[in-house]
Amino acid sequence: MNVPKLKASNFTSDITPIWCPGCGDFHVLMSITRALAKLGRPPEEIAVISGIGCSSRIPAYTNCYGFHGVHGRSLAVAAGLKVARPDLTVMATSGDGDGFSIGGNHFLHACRRNVDMTYIVMDNRVYGMTKGQPSPTTEPDWDSALSPGGTGLSPFHPLVIALASGANFVAREFSGNIKGCTETILDAINHPGFSFVEILSPCVTFRPDEKEWKNQVHKASVSETDDPARAARRIMTDDGMNTGVLFRGNRNPYFASVSDEAGDLEPLEQAFEI
Amino acid sequence: MNALSHQVKNVSFAVVGTGGAGAITAGSILLEAAGKSGWYGLLTRSVGPQIRGGEAAALVRLSTRPAACMAKEFDILVAIDWKNADRFINAMPVASGGLVICDPAAGDPPKAVLDMDCTIVRCPIGELAKSIQGGRENMIAVGLVTQLVGLPVADVMNVVSSKLGRKGEQAVETGRTCIEAGMKAAADLGKAYTLAPASEQEESRWLITGNEAVGLGALRGGVRFAAAYPITPATEVLEYLSPALASIGGALVQAEDELASINMIIGASFGGRPSITATSGPGLSLMMESLGLASASETPIVVVDVMRVGPSTGIATKSEQSDLNIAVYGFHGDADHVVIAPLSVADCLFAGQWAVHIAETLQTPVIVLSDQSIGQARVLIDKPANMAFLTQRKPFVDTDKDYKRYGLVAGGVSPMAIPGQSGGQYTADGLTHTQRGTPSSTGKDQREQMGKRHNKIESFDFGDYWGVCEGDADSDTVILTWGSMTGPAREALDLLADGGQNARLVSLRQISPFPTKALQSALTGAKRVVFVEQSYSGQFYRHVRSHIDLPFDVRNLNREGPDEIGPEEITTHIRDWKDQ
Questions:
Q1: Both B287 and B339 in a single domain?
Q2: Which of B324, B351, B382 is the endpoint of a domain?
């Protein structure tokens, strides 16, 4: 077949992203479009689903089909779409507030359900769109107007929770490493079942300290595993800054899907006749 | 009523017994047999305050005419035993002159029964069953009622054969022996409540619940995806849809909560599949934000709300019509959408299909306000007609250049591209957006998109389906109601007519947008209007009042659940009013 080669630009829309200069999400958008170009499917066969927040603006910045829904529910929209349309490549994009706080329950059950899709969470450890409140991944002593002196709460471990809940692919990347992000996102899309990629994506406006992340992240020193307990132990004990694919499972993806057949209603009608 | 020669148009009976005694099975067999013989009727189950499989009663009304609601009082009460009966016996008062049959081995009837003005006879139901190898008490009860009501035994046996057939011939034979024993015992009582002959049957009859009917209607409308979170009394809609969808290539996903179920159907519908979920009041409350998303993003979905007693958790197993306010007015912002209500169990089938048709045609959420009283009732109905709606979303054509998903087209319904269609890519958005779907905060876009969504719904032709006008069109007395209360109101018309009085019934199926012109026209010539609704605050009255003037003498017969407003009460209300 003589299919023209796709470029990242085939996957970007003409809308200029509204993010702060220096925001890590610019790089994530770049990585997503590059990964999609490498995937080789045309943009109309990809759907990007999101909730509310800075990172959730991504769908409209792509040239794919997109759904920008309500706060915290992107995974439910994405699951419904994928079951209804198994032929599509479905991706959900989210942030740490949208994905782990208001959307926390859906996160657990999306991992458990294992619908074949990819979940990318841009974690900047802050609510950016509402101007700087602590999220579930924020350090306990991070000071803010809403929680002066810090929340005093331990941060949530998204990767460990994903493993405990049954996610089939777990990875961490840093937004600044576009090459690494691109490869991992492509890997996640190609892996069957629910794939979760946490991307450390600095918020330079409300968390200027995160500018240091580029000096702190490092490639995971050990190779990936298919043992969730082993992967969880490593993640619990590392410095939170190692990147790469950390777990690759082999669970069968969610089974139900809708076919294109119209179906015969007659037996269903007859069932009520006496 | 108890003279052997007298025939009745209605007979009601209750079969009571502990879980496992098979009271519900007995009631179901008798109802289906009556349907085979050409009668109408309905069955509701009464369970204790906690669903524990412990106590159960089958309440059955058989009638020569389509029966819309359960009788207020019962002619016959068969008690297999009295265990825990005091918890629910008050819900089934025996009519004056009625008959209570109970087993002396089960001890004395509860005080509530002893206090009733009825005949109590002892019948050794347990002993009779034990005397037959493998015999069951509930089949003795079937025999008792078969004899008392005058059901053709061949039809009863026909149903027993199909229900017990898979257990083998011996089980069917044992059933027959039990039924015959029960019939003989009843014949010795010297009482009868013989049903008048059934009318000639033109179409085959269906036996169906409202919850099943709304599900089948949705499938007729084209639904191929459902998301589900269990909630009483809506769960049966979802339990019906699960295997039914699988059998036609569709799918149902059990969600983690109602927030997920509503968003799953939004996602599936975005993918081009007509989609549905069903819930009750608490679930609808949780879904409100995303219903607004479906409205703003113009994503067609259907949400069936099988209403129960509220507020909060309320009474999960009992009926009320008190979700009208949240269904119509619960959205934040001005979120145009459609609310409809089935008028009966049979109408649940139509409403399910019509809801999908409206949702798909208008690209908007449609809420169907069913309720427990029709959702969980199993009813004999004439085989319903298949409505030939041409249901289709306005399609995106790939020759459309510069595609605008939310374009300001005539009529307001813009073409909806489906993922996979090249050149149709757009991002559906709950944010105020431009015609292309790009987020916007300008007054112009807000005004234009608001107008687009409003006009497409306001300009839609709901046709004659907005409601029904029945009874005497010349009468100046109107019963004005909606949804499931239509059934009791219909029967009230009959009762009034039997007493030589006339009235009109006007009932709304279309709740929002409000059918202003149709209702004003239907009320022409009215002098007295009585609103009938199962709501403490009179939600329906206030809703109507906010849309049209009511230059009539107006009364509201309204009450909260679980005490259902019945035909007798409506009849009495109108008689008293007319007499004044």
A1: yes
A2: B382
Please count the other Cβ atoms lying within 10 Å of the Cβ belonging to residue B270: 29
B396 domain residue, yes or no: no
- Choose among A261, A257, A113, A87: nearest CA to A196: A113
Beta-strand pair B528-533/B477-482: parallel
Q: What angle do CA B435, B438, B440 make, to 5 degrees?
A: 90
- Please determine, for residue B2, whether its predicted confidence score (pLDDT) is greater than 70: no
Average pLDDT along chain B: 94
Q: What is the pLDDT of residues B84-129, one digit of tens each?
A: 787 778 888 899 989 999 999 998 999 989 988 999 999 999 999 9
Q: Which CATH architecture has domain A8-270?
A: 3-Layer(aba) Sandwich (3.40)
Is B526 near chain A, with CB under 8 Å? Answer: no
pLDDT of residue B198: 83
Same domain, B39 and B182: yes
Whether residue A109 and residue B260 make contact (CB cut-off 8 A), yes or no, is yes
Dist CA A129 CA A110 (whole Å): 25
Is residue B39 a contact partner of residue B63, using CB atoms and an 8 Å limit?
yes
Residue B387 has pLDDT above 90, yes or no: no
Give the number of domains in chain B.
3
* Contact status of A264 with chain B (Cβ, < 8 Å): yes
pLDDT at B4: 47
Cβ atoms of B282 and B313 closer than 8 Å: yes
Using an 8 Å CB-CB cutoff, list chain A residues near B346: none
Q: Percent of chain B beyond pLDDT 90?
A: 84
Q: Which of B204, B246, B260 sits opposite A106 (nearest CB)?
A: B260
Residue A142 has pLDDT above 80, yes or no: yes
Statement to judge: residues B28 and B142 lie in one domain: yes
The answer to whether residue B152 is domain-embedded is yes
User: Is pLDDT above 80 for B229?
Assistant: yes
The arithmetic mean of pLDDT across residues A222-231, rounded, is: 94
Residue B381's DSSP bridge partners are: B206
Query: ipTM value of the model?
Result: 0.98
- Reported as a single tens digit per residue, the pLDDT across A171-191 is 999 999 999 999 999 999 999
Domain hosting B502: range is 466-579
Query: Are B71 and B169 contained in the same domain?
Result: yes
Interface probe for B, chosen from A81, A111, A259 (most Cβ of B below 10 Å), is A81
Confidence of residue A153 (pLDDT cuts 50, 70, 90): very high
In B, which residues are within 8 Å of A68 by CB distance? 427-431, 439
Nearest to A66 among B204, B423, B428 (CB): B428
Span B182-203, mean pLDDT?
Answer: 88
Instruction: Give me the residues of B, 13-52, that contact A with CB < 8 A.
Output: 32, 35-36
Query: What share of chain A has pLDDT > 90, as a percent?
Result: 95
Residue B426 located in a structural domain: no
B287 and B144 in a common domain: no
B92 CB within 8 Å of a chain A CB: no
Determine which helix (DSSP H) or strand (DSSP E) holds B122, and give its type and residue range: strand B118-122
pLDDT surpasses 60 at A2? no
β-pairing, B477-482 with B427-429? unpaired
Q: Which positions ≥6 away from A223 have C-beta within 8 Å?
A: none
Do B365 and B476 lie in one domain? The reply is: no
Question: What residue segments make up the domains of chain A, in order of their start?
Answer: 8-270
Contact call for residues B250 and A50 (beta carbons, < 8 A): no
Q: What is the DSSP letter of A55?
A: G
CATH number, domain at B141?
Answer: 3.40.920.10
Partner-chain contact B270 A269, CB within 8 Å: no
Please say which residue of B382, B415, B444 terminates a domain. Answer: B382
| Cα dist from B297 to A198, B302, B392, B414, B457, whole Å | 28, 15, 18, 12, 14
pLDDT tens digits, one per residue of B414-454: 999 999 999 999 999 999 999 999 999 999 999 999 999 99
